[in-house]
């Protein structure tokens, strides 16, 4: 979760606003600041028409399994099918802030992104830059540990546990879990009854192998990479949530693009709903397609011993699970990393529910956080 404090509070704690916000805004799934352009491989159908007169729609996502909808829709051409003669163009990110910046600048129009950068982007702009317009994935986060050092949940006390980034979604979840155990940890330093070690997902497996951490509370596929190195799953975060569901990936759009090009947004949402239906009906083929797109985007596919368990822990859904986004924000407030945000208006699910109704699917709600 992003850390948003009053200037006076920041001053008292000696933390500059400019330094704190970028650090705490990193996405739940991946980190860094590089983005990769990837033109659509799907051919525009002959005789099709442009939507809203647009030459292209620019779609952003991360090269992670938690963004499976975008991976599969790109690989299988679902986006291009619905956009007709309007070309689907792609930009692959490895950080939430860079995707939000791209959305703000118009470099992308629509994006798949985690809850923390969506909240941060919305609150930093006073609710003026983006809307969450749909859901994409739930779950895919685990506490994995060295079984020689940690045999039960109570053994986590006194150990060194990695999270991806100070204030990110997994970091907030772990801090909240620690508090529920009755243990004390200073949120910013990570010091206390548990040592919370903020470690980039890219190097977490090496940190585990070297023994510098005893475990990690991380998203997939990092969790399964650690298991492949001998770690054990001690806790699946899904078990802590009602119905075992919580948001890990949403769909966002710039407010200006939503206002000016609703038909294009609707087309992308229709493609997303169609993709999710295909994924859930063809899980093995979908897993292969997602991994193939990962290889195209990153140059490296995931091995089966990582891909299979990671895929199985992620639920693909159209529902943005709005109530869980609000709960995650409350956890960040409880941890002292976030001042109480006003998230009213962060959702606009009008077009998604229109698509769902047309497809005979159940509509979804915004938990009272929709546009008034």
Assembly context of the chains: single chain
Fraction in beta strands: 15-25%
Between the first and last Cα atoms, what is the distance in angstroms? 25 Å
Structural class: alpha/beta
Order of helices and strands: HHEEHHEHEHEEEHEHEHEEHHHHEHH
Shape summary: globular
Output the number of helix runs.
Answer: 15
State the helical fraction.
Answer: 40-55%
> How confident is the prediction overall: mean pLDDT?
88
Based on DSSP secondary structure assignment, what is the total number of beta strands? 12
Q: Tell me the radius of gyration.
A: 20 Å
Major β-sheet annotation: 7 strands, mixed
A few lines on this structure:
This protein is α/β, with parallel strands linked by helices and 372 residues long.
Q: What does the secondary structure layout of this molecule look like, with pairings?
A:
Layout: H1 7-13, H2 17-24, E1 35-39, E2 56-62, H3 68-76, H4 78-83, E3 87-93, H5 96-105, E4 110-113, H6 115-124, E5 130-139, E6 141-145, E7 160-163, H7 169-180, E8 195-198, H8 204-210, E9 215-219, H9 222-228, E10 232-236, E11 247-254, H10 255-260, H11 262-281, H12 283-298, H13 304-312, E12 314-316, H14 322-335, H15 350-358
Parallel strand pairs: 2-3, 2-4, 7-8, 7-9
Antiparallel strand pairs: 1-3, 4-11, 5-11, 5-12, 6-9, 6-10
Helix pairs in contact: 3-11, 3-12, 7-14, 9-13, 11-12, 11-15
Could you explain the architecture of this structure?
The protein is of the alpha/beta class and 372 residues long. Helix content is 40%, strand content 18%. It is built from 15 helices and 12 strands. It has helices at 7-13, 17-24, 68-76, 78-83, 96-105, 115-124, 169-180, 204-210, 222-228, 255-260, 262-281, 283-298, 304-312, 322-335, 350-358, and strands spanning 35-39, 56-62, 87-93, 110-113, 130-139, 141-145, 160-163, 195-198, 215-219, 232-236, 247-254, 314-316. The strands form 2 sheets. Strands 1-3-2-4-11-5-12 form a 7-stranded mixed beta sheet, sandwiched between helices. Helix 7 (169-180) packs across helix 14, helix 9 packs across helix 13 and helix 11 packs across helix 12 (283-298). The protein is globular and about 65 Å long. The two termini are 25 Å apart. Residues 1-34 have low confidence and may be disordered.
């Amino acid at each position: 979760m992003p850390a948003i404090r009053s200037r006076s509070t920041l001053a008292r704690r000696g933390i500059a606003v400019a330094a704190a916000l970028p650090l705490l805004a990193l996405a739940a799934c991946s980190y860094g600041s590089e983005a990769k352009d990837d033109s659509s491989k799907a051919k525009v159908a002959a005789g099709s028409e442009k939507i809203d007169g647009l030459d292209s729609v620019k779609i952003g996502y991360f090269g992670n399994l938690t963004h499976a909808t975008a991976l599969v829709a790109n690989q299988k051409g679902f986006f291009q099918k619905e956009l007709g003669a309007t070309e689907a163009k792609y930009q692959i990110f490895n950080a939430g802030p860079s995707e939000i910046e791209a959305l703000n600048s118009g470099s992308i129009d629509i994006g798949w992104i985690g809850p923390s950068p969506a909240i941060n982007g919305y609150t930093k702009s006073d609710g003026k830059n983006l809307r969450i317009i749909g859901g994409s994935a739930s779950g895919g986060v685990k506490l994995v540990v060295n079984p020689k050092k940690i045999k039960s949940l109570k053994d986590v006390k006194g150990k060194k546990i990695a999270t991806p980034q100070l204030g990110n979604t997994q970091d907030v979840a772990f801090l909240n879990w620690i508090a529920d155990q009755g243990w004390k940890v200073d949120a910013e330093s990570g010091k206390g009854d548990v040592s919370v070690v903020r470690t980039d997902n890219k190097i977490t497996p090496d940190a585990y192998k070297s023994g510098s951490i005893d475990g990690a509370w991380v998203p997939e596929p990092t969790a399964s990479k650690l298991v492949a190195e001998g770690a054990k799953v001690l806790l699946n975060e899904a078990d802590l949530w009602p119905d075992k569901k919580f948001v890990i990936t949403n769909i966002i759009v710039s407010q200006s693009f939503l206002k000016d090009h609703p038909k294009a947004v609707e087309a992308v949402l229709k493609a997303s709903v169609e993709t999710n239906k295909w994924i859930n009906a063809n899980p093995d083929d979908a897993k292969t397609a997602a991994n193939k797109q990962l290889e195209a985007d990153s140059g490296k596919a995931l091995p089966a011993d990582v891909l299979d368990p990671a895929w199985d822990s992620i639920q693909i859904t159209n529902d943005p699970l709005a109530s869980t986004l609000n709960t995650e924000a409350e956890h960040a407030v409880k941890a002292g990393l976030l001042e109480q945000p006003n998230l009213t208006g962060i959702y606009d699910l009008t077009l998604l529910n229109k698509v769902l109704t047309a497809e005979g699917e159940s509509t979804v709600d915004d938990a009272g956080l929709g546009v008034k």
